[in-house]
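Reopening this one. Same input as before:
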Amino acid sequence: QVQLVESGGGLVQPGGSLRLSCVVSGFTLPFYAVAWFRQAPGKGREGISCIFGRDDKTVYSSSVKDRFTISRDTANNTVYLQMNSLKPEDTAVYYCATDSFICTYLAGTYYSGSRPPGSWGQGTQVTVSS
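Same output, byte for byte:
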C-alpha cells in the first residue's frame, strides 16, 4: 500500500525558510515521480514542484522557481521541499503526491475538491505571517 506522510510545516515570518518532508512507503522512491502541490484558503490546488523518477530532473512553477528546491533521499525514502524567501502568499496546505505521470499535472490548478490521480499525503500547513 502506497503511503505518503508530510511534515515540517509551521508558522514562519516573511523572508524565512522551512523544509518540508514527505516520507513515502509502499514503493521504491527512485522509480516514481513525486510532486508537491499546495492549496490556499478559498483557492484551487496548484502544482508547484516535481522530481522525476529514474533521474533527477526537477520542475517548478513560476510562483516558486528560484525560491524552492525539491530533492530526494532514497536511503530514507524521503522527498524534501526546501522553501526560502517565503512570502505571505505562500500560506497554504502543502501536499505531496505520487503517480506515474504526476509531473504532467503540475501546470494545472484543481478546484472544488478535485485533484490529479495518484496517492496523496494528508497535507501540512504552512503559514507565512509577521
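So the earlier flakiness isn't reproducible anymore. For the record, The chain has a mean pLDDT of 94.
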